[in-house]
Amino acid sequence: MTTYVLTLSCPDRMGIVHAVSGFLLENGGNIEEAAQFNDQATGLFFMRVQFVVTDENPEAKSQAMRAALDALAAQFDMRWQLHDAAQPMRCAIFVSREGHCLNDLLFRWKSGLLPLDIRAIVSNHRDFYQLAASYNVPFHHIPVTRETKAQAEARQYEIIQAESAELVVLARYMQILSDGVCRAMEGRVINIHHSFLPSFKGARPYAQAHERGVKLIGATAHYVTADLDEGPIIEQDVTRVSHADSTADMVALGQDVERRVLAQAVRFHAEHRVLMNGTRTVVFAK
């Protein structure tokens, strides 16, 4: 038995669900989970189906299904992807000097809570090489300065390609990626940051928030684009704070929210639950 995840999007019209159901019936697919969304604003239809197929020759079956999906796509002007649900997503994690998100992702991965295959950790500092070693993950120290940024990014991209990484997670990586890298990795780089933006930019955002007496601390995980911190949002969350909380308290609470939000966003992406919808996302959460 092989479990597959089919995701698709196309202009909305009658007969799409019927056609997909027919495809599954013809290929002996037993549906385990299904979700769909019709965006009235854009006229687009989105769907995610997880199904099981029993076949003695999985490779031949996969090829046959992909050929059938090509025919279906031509009929409905459809974009589709078919994934083997048992295959963990190959991933590289970038980090600077704040390790709370990195540590959380590694722990969840080793605990079987994230369907990832973490192939590399890349950092512009040496702080977490021992943490990487404790999880038996290769650690790549690549310093970045204004003068060496282009060479550093070229080396980083070489690592991504060499490891066949399907996803890059910026786990508090404090360097801005160039437009070229953002375009080359479109839809495959996830970033996390506090949700104060556009307020409290730059250094010491929690100290700035404390001085202004904020009552909610949040975090946002989104896809990276050339527009800094403005890519399509995958996940967000908040926690309350009060006048009694110090800046240190707020930092700790903020880091906790960042961990949760990033892990959730990474899980959604790795389980193929996120579909792009222009500047937004459709997230079939579970």
Average pLDDT level: 94
N→C terminal distance? 23 Å
Order of helices and strands: EHEEHEEHEHEHEHEHEEHEE
What is the count of helical runs?
A: 8
Strand content: 25-35%
Any idea what the shape is?
Answer: globular
Major sheet strand order: 7-6-5-8-9-10-11
Structural class: alpha/beta
**What integer value in Å does the Rg equal?**
21 Å
The major β-sheet equals: 7 strands, mixed
- List segments where confidence is low: pLDDT < 50 over at least 5 consecutive residues: none
Counting DSSP E segments of at least 2 residues, the number of strands comes to 13
Any key phrases for this structure?
286 residues; alpha/beta; seven-stranded mixed β-sheet; four-stranded antiparallel β-sheet; 31% strand; globular
How would you explain this protein's 3D organization?
- The chain has 286 residues and is α/β, with parallel strands linked by helices.
- It is built from eight helices and 13 strands.
- It has a seven-stranded mixed beta sheet, sandwiched between helices.
- It is globular.
- The two termini are 23 Å apart.
